[in-house]
Design a protein that fits this description.
The structure is a homodimer of 446-residue chains.
Chain A lengths: L20 H8 L3 E5 L2 E4 L1 H20 L3 E2 L5 E3 H7 L1 H4 L5 E4 L5 E4 L4 H11 L8 E10 L14 E11 L2 H21 L4 E5 L9 E8 L5 E6 L17 H12 L3 E3 L5 H7 L5 E16 L1 H6 L2 E3 L5 E3 L1 E8 H11 L1 E2 L2 E2 L10 E5 L5 H16 L4 E4 L5 H11 L3 E5 L1 H5 L3 E5 L5 E4 L1 H13 L2
Parallel strand pairs in A: 3-7, 19-20, 19-21
Antiparallel strand pairs in A: 1-2, 4-6, 5-6, 7-8, 8-16, 9-10, 10-13, 11-12, 11-13, 13-16, 14-15, 17-18, 21-22, 22-23
Chain lengths: 446, 446
């Protein structure tokens, strides 16, 4: 993409309304625009990252054997009356009356609707196990929306629901979700720690939250210093292998890691040597629940078992806050100049800065480099504006592309361009062809 | 995908509520489930086609130089008060009050919001031309939703908005949209005819609707028999070349083609020889508008011109009904057995039917074929259920995959499988390797 043909409305000033760095940087980098309290437009750069995150979530869910569908944003109130949550949910639920005065609501989550889909179409244990998920906009009418997309009202969430015959099967589904989530966050360049959590309005005993460590996190967290070092890495996972999946979960949840809601000071002291006892703050970016038959009993979602009897289906629900992940990513990856995207989620793979726009030789070299990058399957952003070098560098640093190639007449005279790493700030001179190869190799490894 | 691991709840009976064939077939093929009047869940098969259509729309918009972003579903009422449409829009607009009693609405379209984004960020003619679009769920509270996804209340629409300095520039954007839409529909296997239309609530003089011919269409259409034969085909289009783009528009809009709203019997008789005068019905699947400064004037969206003055920006808006396209596709592509997907939009590339599930040799041959198809980058659906051949064929015919490979012990004895074309019904015996090559070649050509 050529910047002169793109829509990247960066701001020079720090917006007064933004209290945390991710909100400030998303506004300054032209990623979002607030349309009402807690409701945002995703401008092209923000939308591009959002789509990238969505894609990673889809890929990892499908890899785990989960099946995508899409439920609507609006739901009839009657479904929620069946589960008893219509009255319980309180003012966070956006209630709507349509033109025929029917009670509707903007879905804050989908346990009821997915249970309705299940009971309408599934009869037998033979159709199990089954995990359905969607990535859809939700609405929670927060009394005080703040922190940009971190606590918005209209937000994008992946929510998945498992249906199993037995508690044991459902706990395998729970574990499968935990592992698929670990891989999802790792691919995004995040360290998200599963922590035992309290259950809240979804219900259920077994539940873990995934927290990204960041100073601005809303939760206080207590953890063994060894926990953030755990990595899933490149290991292949057979999601049908219960023992293998369970062993990974054990590996990631045995060491002490809790939020303030479930923290136990005595256990912390007993289990963790003092020098490894860490207290910090975390941003919640996902949560998994096993809640058994809570919804299936209330809503009559039963299956015929091998012995011919009928039992309510065992369920759990599992969510990733996709839009809020952008905020968490920036909280965990920025410096005073701006955002630093991990390669796995960057909106463009590499920035191309022309130091002398209008100079025939420099323009030609940039055009050639651009074409060579595209030919390698890369998606570069070419700053072809007639601007000073300083302004171009400031924009690239602000929007946080992990790599930048700088092309100027002086370097070209000796056949060189400069490749700069956004995170380290280090630059290296090399030929244009070598720069293309280097950048291609970095992304080929992802 | 193995069918035993998928969620494909096909119905044996014709659902009583469905009045038209696309609605009936989408329900029977397990593509959608109604959750409230005019509000549907997209079950896995339906969601897969919807995503495919969305992808084609994105690719063709990006090819035309248009930039994706995403606006929220909910909008503040104040924006619509600025344009004057808050009162004009009537009961089709779903009006909502949030917990602080603020007036909101579920967006039925986005002229106001995109104009707000533009005026907040663009100052100068130097940022033009600019076309922004999104694909987002909309809501129109139809008094009598019907025909399944063809006239739903919550529906997925691509809406794009061009911003230009002059009327001439804006008309080029209009033409660019027309050509990109022609290519979009052709890739989906649809013949969509641009017809001059009346303007309706968006406003503007220049407007064309795109209609797919189908007996169940809501509009009566009058056209020259030569019009449906026009094809864009494989020709490369330079979207920056005004003359080239305008010439394509002329080619597709010169012959007579009008809806009942703009039909002129005298002109029809004068311009079209009697034997080519066709009267039929059509389904609207898109519409483009040039409306000049209607919204920019009302909302103060101006730019500084080269001479330093300020003018309201020239605009148009351009929509494709993405979710309704599924209905239109099925109306135009089905027979008494079920759906017949065009290759460009099919949810799975090929069906694989095992005639003797549980037989070691047949199972092994199917597993091998499946792996070979996947290795070619194809997405097969393998019916591995323990069902009679007749039931498997009926399911494949109902869900409409364009190609089917049938594997049975008798054929395998002579090293043969059967490749069947859904549309023609013709079958051919060949080796498994040849079947894989043939199917791969069909999709490689798309």
């Amino acid at each position: 993409m050529r910047l002169t043909r793109y829509f990247l409305p960066v701001l020079k000033e720090n917006p007064a309304e933004a209290q945390i760095v991710s909100h400030r940087l998303m506004l300054r980098a032209g990623m979002i625009k607030q349309q009402a309290a807690g409701i945002y437009s995703w401008l092209p750069l923000g939308y591009k990252v959002l789509k990238r995150l969505e894609q990673i979530v889809h890929e990892e869910q499908i890899r785990a054997g989960h099946i995508p569908l899409l439920m609507p944003t609006l739901q009839p109130a009657d479904l929620w009356r069946e589960s008893g949550r219509y009255d319980d949910y309180g003012q966070e639920m956006l209630r709507i009356k349509d033109r025929h005065d029917r009670d509707m609501l903007y879905g804050p989550t989908n346990e009821e609707m997915i249970t309705d889909i299940f009971r309408s179409h599934v009869e037998s244990y033979k159709s199990l196990p089954l995990t359905l998920y969607h990535i859809q906009w939700k609405f929670r009418d927060e009394v005080r929306p703040r922190f940009g997309v971190m606590r918005g009202r209209e937000f994008l969430m992946k929510d998945g629901y498992n249906f199993d015959l037995t508690r044991e099967d459902a706990l395998h589904a729970y574990n499968r979700h935990m592992v698929s989530y670990l891989r999802t966050y790792e691919r995004m360049g995040l360290t998200a720690i599963p922590m035992r959590a309290a259950s809240g309005p979804i219900g259920g005993d077994n539940t873990h939250e995934f927290l990204v460590l960041a100073k601005t996190g809303e939760s206080e967290v207590f953890y063994d210093a060894k926990v953030p070092e755990l990595k899933l890495g490149e290991r292949a996972v057979d999601y049908d292998n219960r023992a293998e999946v369970a062993a990974i979960c054990e590996e990631f949840t045995t060491l002490y890691a809790r939020t303030d809601e479930t923290h136990d000071e005595a256990a912390f002291a007993a289990q963790v040597p003092e020098e490894r006892r860490m207290v910090g703050r975390g941003i919640e970016v996902g949560q998994i629940f096993y809640f058994g038959t809570k919804y299936s009993e209330a809503m009559g979602a039963t299956v015929v078992t091998p012995d011919g009897s009928r039992v309510p289906v065992e369920m759990g629900s599992h969510g990733i806050g996709v839009s809020r992940l952008l905020g968490a990513l920036i909280e965990a990856n920025h410096d005073e100049k701006g955002i630093i995207w991990p390669e796995g989620v960057t909106p463009f793979h590499v920035g191309l800065v022309n130091l002398k726009q209008g100079d025939a030789a420099t323009d030609a070299a940039c055009a050639e480099l651009y074409a060579a990058l595209v030919a390698k399957g890369l998606d570069p952003l070419y700053d072809d504006r007639e601007e000073r070098a300083g302004a171009k560098f400031a924009t690239m640093d602000l929007i946080g592309l992990p790599w930048r190639i700088t092309v100027g007449p002086r370097g070209l005279a000796s056949g060189m361009v400069e490749l700069t790493c956004r995170r380290s700030g280090e630059s290296e001179e090399m030929s244009p062809a070598a720069a293309v190869e280097r950048v291609a190799a970095i992304y080929a490894g992802l």
